[in-house]
Design brief:
CATH topology: Spore Coat Polysaccharide Biosynthesis Protein SpsA, Chain A
Distance between the termini: 22 Å
Number of helices: 8
CATH architecture: Alpha-Beta Complex
Radius of gyration: 18 Å
Number of domains: 1
Strand order of the largest sheet: 3-2-1-4-7-6-8
């Protein structure tokens, strides 16, 4: 039986900022299945791009624009099964329950913060490369900003499978993933509630008061009181307690953890 909510945290490196942002997600979503996926050195027990050499080659064409290939690499190796997935990059900070945040649009198959359409946002920089999209997908060009979204498991599987069958390199992951999603018949729904602080100016070293999702957060922000304990929490791949053969309680008993060797 699939778990209700899974969280996939994409990262390229490990430092205090990455740990703090991941910890913020864990603190406010204690019942979720959480996994990490790295383009470089993984957290122990986390997924790594090295496990999928062919996809790693796709990612290496332009690592700074390839969150979609990082996602596809995890999809090719994954062991978890959840009905919904929240995909977040390393510079996302979360101070809210994802269920509460997305409650009005929870039943939608694919939800992004901002949707880009060539007929409306014609000045979005990545549409300049739409001419290089394979003809099969070109008429379905669409994008999202940023690469942070809620998606149903079956829709995610359809999109990732299609991308791996017909890979291309035009634009960036936000353009490629949405274009293929649109071709598959699942264009994203744009959703930006009052607690959406995604793609906005975040004052250095501080966050606006209240609950929300913040991006980009590329520096340490409060609360920092648990920072010294973060390596114990985030150095493991977090999965649902029903799957555990043996477990260790960490992060103030919020989650059970099992170490797994990447395939």
């Amino acid at each position: 039986m699939a778990d209700p909510l899974g969280i996939l945290f994409l990262h390229h490196h490990i430092d205090d900022v990455v740990r703090n942002n991941l910890s913020s997600i864990l603190r406010h979503n204690p019942g979720a299945t959480v996994v990490t996926m790295s383009a470089g050195a993984p957290f122990p027990g986390g997924y790594a791009l090295d496990a999928t050499p062919k996809i790693k080659k796709l990612h290496s064409a332009n690592p700074r624009r390839s969150s979609d290939w990082l996602l596809c690499s995890w999809f090719a190796q994954r062991q978890e099964k959840c009905r919904k997935w929240w995909i977040a990059e390393w510079d996302v900070h979360c101070t809210t329950s994802l269920r509460d945040y997305y409650r009005p649009v929870w039943k939608f198959p694919f939800v992004a913060s901002s949707v880009q359409r060539p007929s409306r946002e014609m000045d979005w920089r990545w549409f300049a490369e739409a001419k290089d999209i394979p003809e099969k997908f070109r008429a379905h060009a669409m994008g999202m900003v940023p690469f942070v979204f809620l998606i149903s498991d079956d829709v995610l599987a359809y999109i990732c499978t299609t991308m791996l069958e017909t890979p291309f390199f035009a634009g960036n992951g936000e353009l490629r993933f949405c274009t293929v999603a649109n071709w598959c018949g699942f264009p994203p729904c744009a959703y930006s509630p009052p607690t959406d602080y995604i793609v906005c100016y975040i004052p250095p070293r501080a966050l606006p008061k209240g609950k929300g999702i913040f991006h980009p957060v590329k520096y340490l922000v409060a609360p920092r009181k648990s920072l010294k304990r973060l390596p114990r929490v985030t150095a493991l791949n977090l999965i649902n307690r029903r799957r555990l053969e043996s477990s260790t309680v960490v992060a103030q008993s919020l989650l059970n953890v099992r170490q797994r060797t990447p395939l």
